[in-house]
Design a protein that fits this description.
single chain; alpha/beta; Rossmann fold; Helicase, Ruva Protein, domain 3; Zinc Finger, Delta Prime, domain 3; 5-stranded parallel β-sheet; two-stranded parallel ribbon; 20 helices; 7 strands; elongated
Length: 446
């Protein structure tokens, strides 16, 4: 008995009225899948795998990589339906090598006796250790099972290379608001969903989209809870208030394309610039809950690290860049921790805007035409004929000078004596202020 048969037997299958709404609304065919059009074109590897038309070499094993609620489990179920395949599901959270080997042994026996293929679906495969992943290799190599492994983490970092090279990697995209809205509307109207038992106010739908954050399963779970609360009080329309009480999450007034987007990000930046870590975390939480793109938040942190902290804390920029890389590497919701760490660091760091003032002052001079030729002794002297025209003549090599500093003109005549970088006396920049003053005196002789 495979998973579908077992679920149906105890009344929890996709067709059962007692199954969770997210299970009941699981697509029965590829054409019902929302938001993964790049994987579903005619003749695509996924369509051939689901149809059972993989060619003489047999079915490929697949790694499905994408955020939560984008359809990884659904696609695994659809693969299992092709040609009457058996389906076995393991979770890497609680399964071990013994469980994997037992499934493989049963699959080999089933294939030898009846010719029936087995789909082994492993959820959160990134949680398997290297040893556990290596245990899958013989089964994949010999096609004893059709492995469908799902992960929310970058497989190039979380899955061993031999397993990755033997599998077809399919990347699922986050659902946009229109995709999640389509899933919600189907669930409200279709007989195996809510069957039109309630209506959904526009405000409630908008709040559901914010709650979902691109996760269709989260949207359906919240919808089911709120629909039950609506029917329990004898109403026929789900409103924001009922939705809030059902999912215990306030409706944020935040329009990612409107004024609130700009107001909240402005307050976020100004809170960090003003060294209020608590306020900055509040605005970070509002953006996360509203489904703001975490990459946008990370980019703002990287900018602020140089614009408002700069060399007062030289570690600020590496911390911000590391947070941005963490967002790309592991994604949400885990990356909220990395973002929060960077926010706290930047808020508490000593502040200096000397870097942005310096570069903008230099740009202003260049734009006003203050450029002029490069001093002859600084020009490139490595090409034939350079010496004849005086390029490089008189250049003082700093490493030959006491202290490694040579007194000579570096700036062109047009900006000779101009000072762009004016370090503050805050944090680590205080030491740089003294250093730059001494260096400037040595170099310019003033």
């Amino acid at each position: 008995m495979d998973l579908f048969e077992a679920a149906a037997a105890d009344g929890r299958g996709p067709g059962s009225a007692t199954a969770p709404l997210a299970v009941r609304m699981r697509p029965r065919t590829l054409d019902e899948v929302v938001g993964q059009d790049h994987l579903l074109v005619d003749g695509s590897p996924l369509r051939r795998l689901v149809s059972g038309d993989e060619g003489v070499a047999g079915p490929a094993s697949v790694i499905l990589w994408g955020p939560p609620g984008t359809g990884k489990t659904t696609l695994a179920y659809l693969v299992s339906t092709a040609a009457g395949r058996a389906f076995v599901e393991l979770s890497a959270v609680n399964a071990g090598v013994k469980d994997v080997r037992a499934v493989i042994q049963t699959a080999r026996r089933e294939s030898g006796m009846t010719g029936r293929e087995t789909v082994l679906f492993i959820d959160e495969v990134h949680r398997f250790s290297k040893t556990q992943q290596d245990a899958l290799l013989p089964a994949v190599e010999n096609r004893w099972v059709v492995l469908v492994a799902a992960t929310t983490e970058n497989p190039y970092f979380s899955i061993v290379s031999p397993l990755l090279s033997r599998s077809l990697l399919l990347t699922l995209s986050p659902l946009d608001d229109e995709g999640v809205a389509e899933v919600i509307r189907r669930a409200v109207s279709e007989p195996h969903g809510l069957g039109g038992s309630i209506a959904l106010s526009p405000e409630a739908e908008a709040h559901l989209l914010r709650i979902a954050g691109g996760d269709a399963r989260r949207a359906l779970t919240a919808l089911e809870a709120a629909a039950g609360a609506t029917l329990a009080k004898g109403a026929d329309t789900l409103d924001v208030e009922t939705l809030e009480s059902a999912v215990d999450r306030a409706a944020l007034r935040y329009d990612r394309d409107g004024d609130q987007h700009y107001d909240v990000i402005s307050a976020f930046i100004k809170s960090m610039r003003g060294s209020d870590a608590d306020a900055a975390l509040h605005y970070l939480a509002r953006m996360i809950e509203a489904g703001e793109d975490p990459r946008f938040i990370a980019r703002r942190l990287v900018i602020l690290a140089s614009e408002d902290v700069g060399l007062a804390d030289p570690t600020a920029l590496p911390v911000a860049v590391a947070a941005a890389e963490a967002v790309a590497l592991i994604g949400m919701p885990e990356a909220r921790i990395n973002l929060a760490q960077a926010v706290i660091h930047l808020a508490l760091a000593p502040k200096s805007n000397a870097v942005i003032l310096a570069v903008d002052a230099a740009l202003d001079d260049v734009r006003r035409g203050l450029a002029g030729p490069v001093p002859p002794h600084l020009r490139d002297a490595h090409y034939p004929g350079a010496v004849k025209i005086g390029s490089g003549k008189g250049y003082a090599y700093p490493h030959d000078e006491p202290g490694g500093v040579a007194a000579q003109q570096y700036a062109p005549d047009a900006v000779l004596g101009r000072t762009y970088y004016r370090p503050t006396r805050y944090g680590a920049e205080s030491r740089l202020a003294d250093l730059w003053e001494r260096l400037r005196t040595l170099i310019r002789g003033t």
